[in-house]
């Protein structure tokens, strides 16, 4: 038993160590860690947020943030795909408007066969939908079903997805927007391996192209006129942000742990003792621990709430991201050339943790939303 998660034979720590042992290779090659998801499925962790009626556990946000944070210590790319899996499963099963048969099909697939799901929302022209605008990806209504055409970028987990929740608009005179669930093996889908980023290189966040892809009518999760979409559900705000905050905090903890070991083992001849004996190093590590302790407490507190205001959720994610980046930067600065040598994992942790700022909400949006709320302006 570890962090409230019981695996059949191995503790979560063993699983994370296995992921860590492969992380450098997947980072170097930009290859997707398929074996990690086979292990997560074997451990019964890919369907945690599915309905109990479908074999899941309806796991809450506290359990999910702990799990994602721990997995991120081994392989943050795996943790990101896992976070998306658990977030999207939970969102689908609590939607209320999604067809029952579709919810059951996807939920049981996750539990029984380890099938992965993620939302594909970002587009070349649109950017992230969180900043507004209509998607260019379209769904055309035909007697046979929906015909979907378009391109999605930054499609995390694309090499292993079974289900793609595609954000799109209809081609009707008054276009509706929303999600349609598309099986990844449907004819007309093409993955272009465009993901070549500095960090999270193993996340498989490639482009996905849809060319007149035929999808059954009952795979529409929810479609509405843009003006008819309600404000974001406060219960979903924490789910969309806190697992991401936990992920990058996990990356920073890995950097911290490597630093501690390095300082204990590094004995410069001029000092004749480990660097860990220097008060300056002790103070620096204490500052790192303070940043990460603050993250852990913030995330745990937010995850314990049933309905976290979106502004608070955004601030927690932003603070956790900045604290994590600051912690890893401090670790790199303390190590000199050792910190940026590719033979050591610290430079990889630095590249990975910098990705924290990219996730919605970005810092400017989070601070602006909080400021508007405080000043009561539109």
UniProtKB/TrEMBL annotation:
InterPro entries: Acyl-CoA_DH_C, Acyl-CoA_Oxase/DH_mid-dom, Acyl-CoA_Oxase/DH_mid-dom_sf, AcylCo_DH-like_C, AcylCoA_DH/ox_N, AcylCoA_DH/ox_N_sf, AcylCoA_DH/oxidase_NM_dom_sf, Mito_Isobutyryl-CoADH. The keyword RNA-binding does not apply. SUPFAM superfamilies: Acyl-CoA dehydrogenase C-terminal domain-like (SSF47203), Acyl-CoA dehydrogenase NM domain-like (SSF56645). Its EC number is 1.-.-.-. Residues 244-360 form the Acyl-CoA dehydrogenase C-terminal domain. CDD domains: ACAD. Residues 17-86 form the Acyl-CoA dehydrogenase/oxidase N-terminal domain. One of its GO terms (molecular function) is oxidoreductase activity. It holds the Pfam family Acyl-CoA_dh_2. Residues 123-213 form the Acyl-CoA oxidase/dehydrogenase middle domain. Keywords: Flavoprotein, Oxidoreductase. It comes from the Bacteria. This is Acyl-CoA dehydrogenase family protein. It comes from Roseomonas elaeocarpi. The lineage of its organism: Bacteria, Pseudomonadati, Pseudomonadota, Alphaproteobacteria, Acetobacterales.
């Amino acid at each position: 038993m570890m962090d409230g998660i019981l695996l059949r034979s191995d503790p979560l720590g063993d699983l994370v160590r296995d992921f860590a042992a492969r992380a450098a290779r997947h980072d170097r090659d930009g290859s997707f860690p398929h074996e990690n998801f086979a292990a997560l499925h074997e451990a019964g962790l890919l369907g945690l947020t599915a309905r109990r009626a479908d074999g899941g556990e309806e796991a809450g946000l506290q359990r999910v943030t702990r799990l994602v944070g721990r997995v991120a210590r081994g392989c943050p790319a795996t943790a990101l795909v896992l976070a998306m899996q658990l977030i999207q499963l939970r969102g689908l099963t609590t939607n209320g408007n999604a067809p029952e048969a579709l919810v059951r099909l996807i939920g049981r697939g996750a539990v029984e066969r380890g099938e992965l799901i993620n939302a594909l929302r970002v587009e070349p022209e649109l950017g992230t939908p969180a900043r507004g605008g209509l998607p260019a990806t379209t769904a055309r209504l035909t007697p046979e079903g929906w015909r979907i055409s378009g391109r999605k970028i930054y499609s995390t987990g694309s090499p292993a997805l079974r289900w793609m929740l595609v954000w799109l608009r209809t081609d009707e005179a008054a276009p509706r927007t929303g999600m349609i669930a598309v099986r990844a093996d449907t004819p007309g889908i093409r993955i272009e391996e465009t993901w070549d980023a500095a960090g999270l290189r193993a996340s498989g966040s490639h482009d996905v192209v849809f060319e007149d892809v035929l999808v059954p009518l009952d795979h529409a999760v929810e479609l509405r006129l843009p003006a008819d979409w309600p404000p974001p559900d406060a219960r979903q705000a924490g789910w969309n942000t806190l697992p991401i905050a936990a992920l990058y905090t996990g990356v920073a903890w890995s950097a911290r742990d490597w630093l501690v070991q390095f300082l204990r083992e590094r004995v410069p001849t001029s000092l004749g003792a480990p660097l860990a004996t220097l008060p300056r190093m002790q103070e620096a590590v204490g500052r790192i621990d303070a940043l990460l302790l603050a993250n852990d407490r913030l995330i745990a507190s937010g995850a314990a709430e049933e309905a976290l205001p979106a502004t608070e959720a955004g601030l927690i994610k932003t603070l956790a991201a900045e604290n994590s980046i600051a912690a890893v930067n401090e670790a790199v600065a303390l190590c000199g050339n050792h910190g940026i040598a590719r033979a050591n994992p610290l430079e990889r942790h630095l590249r990975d943790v910098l990705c924290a700022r990219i996730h919605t909400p970005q810092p400017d949006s989070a601070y602006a939303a909080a400021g508007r709320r405080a000043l009561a302006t539109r």
